[in-house]
Each structure stands twice: as C-alpha cells, then as structure tokens.
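Try it yourself: sequence plus zinc ion, in.
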Amino acid sequence: MRAMVYRGPYKIRVEEKDIPPIEHPNDAIVRVTSAAICGSDLHLYHGMMPDTRVGMTFGHEFVGEVHEVGSSVENLKVGDRVMVPFNIYCGSCYFCARGLYSNCHNVNPNATAVGGIYGYSHTAGGYDGGQAEFVRVPFADVGPTKIPEWMDQEDAVMLTDALPTGYFGAQLGDIEQGDTVVVFGAGPVGLYAAKSSWLMGAGRVIVIDHLEYRLKKAREFAHAETYNFTEYDDIVVEMKKATDHLGADVVIDAVGAEADGNLTQHITSSKFKLQGGSPVALNWGIDSVRKGGTVSVVGAYGPMFSAVKFGDAMNKGLTLRMNQCPVKRQWPRLFEHVRNGYLKPSDIITHRIPLEHIAEGYHIFSAKLDDCIKPIVTTAA
Ligand SMILES: NC(=O)c1ccc[n+]([C@@H]2O[C@H](COP(=O)([O-])OP(=O)(O)OC[C@H]3O[C@@H](n4cnc5c(N)ncnc54)[C@H](O)[C@@H]3O)[C@@H](O)[C@H]2O)c1
Ligand SMILES: [Zn+2]
Ligand SMILES: [Zn+2]
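Structure, out:
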C-alpha cells in the first residue's frame, strides 16, 4: 500500500508499506478513503514531539471502509463505512469507564499521561496512522462508528478530531449564559471552539490570531469579533479594554505549544531547549481572563514548560481545565447539530490533496500558504 512516512523534521515522503495485518482478535483493518492533516501533526512535522520515529505514518483523522475484521469483532463487518475517533482506547479500564478515553490505561504502556493516538509518535503509543491507504484499528468494537447514511464523508472526517476538540474546548470553559469567551487561535480547532461557544450560551465570542484570512473565516463561520494581535502593542491590554477592564469570563487556548508572538519564548525553547515550545498563547489567556475565570486548554503541549504564568493563575483564582479530547463522548450531541444543519463541519476545508502529494499538503498547511485552513488527504485506492 501507499503510506505517508516521516523521514525527519520537515521531511515527509510517500512510500510503499505492507498492508497492516490483524494483530489481535478485536482489530479491524480499514481502507482509508479520506484523512485530514491536523495542527497536531504539525508539531510532529516540526520535530517538536519526543520520540517521533523515522518510518512512522501519521494521521489521526480518517474515515474509510472496513477491509478485514479480527475474529472477536462484533460491531463491524467488512464493507462498513466507518469514522474512527483519534483516540485509541480499551473502553473498559478505570479511566475509560469514566469517559476519559484520551487517558486510557491499557493502550500506551510507555506513558502515564496520554493514552493512544493514531500516528502520533511513540509517546502516544507508537501506532501507525491513517494518512495511508490502510490502517490497523485496535479495539474495533470500541472507537469506530458506522457513518450515518445522512452524513457527508468530509463532515465525518471533521468529526474524528477537530470539531469534537473545539466543542470540548468550549465545554471545558463551563460557559454560562451571556459569558464573554475569548478564543486564542483561528485554526480549525479555534474556529470550531468559537462556533461551539454560542451553543453553550456565550453572549460574546472573540477570536484572536495573526492570520487575516483565518480571522475572516472566524467572522464568517463562527460569527465572532476578531483581533489581530500584531496590530496591538499588547493584546492582553486590548482584551481588558474590550471587557470593562475586568477580563473575559472564559478563555480557550486553541494554539498550543508552537505559539507565535513572543521572541524570548522562542529563544528559550528552540535555541536553549529550556522548554518544549512557546506557551505565549496560554500566558495571554491567563492574563486576559478575569479573576475567578476559567482557562480551557485544548492546544497541545509537550511535557516541559518553564515560563508559564502559573503564579498569576493561582493568585487570580483561575480554573484551568484541559485534556486531549475524548472524541466519542462528544458525538451524540454533535451528530444532532450536524444533522439539524446548525453545524456544517466541512465548511472550513480549504484543500483536497491526493495522498501522493501529501508532502506538499504539509508544507502548505505548515507555512499557512494559499489561505490554507484545513487540508484533506484523499486516497485513490
Ligand atoms: N486537545 C486535543 O485533543 C487536540 C486535538 C486537535 C488539535 N489539538 C491542538 O490544538 C491546536 C490547534 O490545532 P489546529 O488544527 O487548529 O492548528 P493550526 O496550526 O491550524 O492553528 C493554530 C492557530 O494559532 C494561531 N496562533 C499562533 N500563535 C498565536 C497566538 N500567540 N495567539 C493567537 N493565535 C495564535 C496560528 O496563526 C494558527 O492560525 C494545536 O496545538 C493542536 O495540536 C489538540
Ligand atoms: Zn488532531
Ligand atoms: Zn481504557
């Protein structure tokens, strides 16, 4: 089969690999028909995630057709069209039983924090991902779901990560009726978080980024007010001005570890390796939220950060909530929102790239060229 393969930072190739075999009776092999590239894949692409091994196939957002099933699989059969959440999880451990699917205890013996994620380095279990013609899906009776007849394939791909994660970001904000919500980041996750904030009762939604074309999308798709942080001396002061000098009720960090906007943070991370990236969006969030407010973090961070304003968070009495998204927990409500037309997830897709050209897809998405917001990878198989 053809598969995307990591060859080192900024080096992606398409190579011939064996079709993955069934390794456990509850595995399925899925023939991928559509996958996406996620902002999280960019952390891998940039060499920021520990233990990203040469030869790994990325891709944790994909849908496809069941090609083969293990002997114990009961819920799926060959030929079913399935959507697969990005989390790999057992469904029955202490954490899964409490809905913490992204923290499953049985799928990633190398880590005590994160569970398993397709194509997301050996830190997240070392599973190959779905930017390929075929992928092995463990615990096939637990994660995947048949794509409902009425759902478009591209909407289904967006439901495997980006949309549930944005929605989860809004959920973690504990938004109350009329709240002012500030979302840092106008990528796919931030756009969906902004849109979802209205669903949770927000009275005002503000989105911050420095890419004008994405802010335009935030206005059109998520009906948000927008601020370009490069146009202000201090975006935090601007947020105070916009909120009667109190600060926002809720802030959602949809940026993560590779934030722009502060040179010192870049130098301490990339030159001196003192921390695993730049937490500047998180710090702006801590500073922009009001005392007693909530900061929801869905932007991804590696283990070590030295320059987070933790003392300010403590002294302001903030609630910090965060996690990798437990995707399937969000599906019942999101399916309804998509079915009734309130959400059209595929509206943010800007590029459709054949698997053979995926290296170009990574480049365009990473360098934010050609007004790219969300690239989809298609397979010819
Ligand atoms: N928690 C989860 O389950 C989960 C799932 C998917 C993605 N993620 C993470 O969410 C984050 C966003 O993902 P995405 O696909 O939208 O990525 P993306 O790279 O497309 O979007 C990030 C956006 O943040 C903007 N940005 C950079 N610095 C900023 C700053 N200081 N202030 C405001 N905006 C800034 C960028 O210009 C970009 O538009 C990533 O860190 C990704 O790893 C987490
Ligand atoms: Zn992702
Ligand atoms: Zn589990």
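One thing you can check immediately is this: The mean pLDDT is 95.
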